């Protein structure tokens, strides 16, 4: 770890509990529209399932880079229709407000303290597919002490495209090996390692709910493996 100068973090799932937060916001929306029969957590899962396919269209050149707020808004309509919701009865303002659910997510309990410890020695920044406006709102809500906000809107590339990692290091003025990508997702770390970044795996065994079956353990020998951000800070010699 002696060469590491920055820790950069996946956000949705690693830093914040997206499933619980989106379900909370969706439940309020459904209650206000007589749709209480819809399972809010199932809806959150459905909305999230549209995330990767929407970004893939940008990765493979079918459409230019489009910030995540726009993709989420498009996916919101698809998700509502999949639950047989007549979106013609919902105003644009109401849809826009629900789309901001992704701006109102809470960090996992260990995050703020762990980041504060890491910040005493390292540059810390999000490396998220989320756009800057989302990252600012999440930071202000959760007290996340970032030194900078990086990610797709800055690099103009969605992970796991190589540019998402290499441009991030370039922006920081660092070599890839001086940046440690931190995530609860093995595929994110695999892509980062392929670009020369160091890697840290933090387990989030309930990101997808109590029946989660993916990313419960490291799939490779990552440079650091930790159960939470406090253990991560400890293993980073803090």
Automatic annotation (TrEMBL):
Keyword ATP-binding applies: no
CDD domains: HAD_L2-DEX
A UniProt-annotated Pfam family: Hydrolase
InterPro entries: 2-HAD (IPR006328), HAD-like_sf (IPR036412), HAD-SF_hydro_IA (IPR006439), HAD_sf (IPR023214), S-2-haloacid_dehalogenase (IPR051540)
Gene3D superfamilies for this protein: 1.10.150.750, HAD superfamily/HAD-like
Keyword Hydrolase: yes
Highest rank taxon of the organism: Bacteria
Official protein name in the record: 2-haloacid dehalogenase
The species this protein was found in: Paralcaligenes ureilyticus
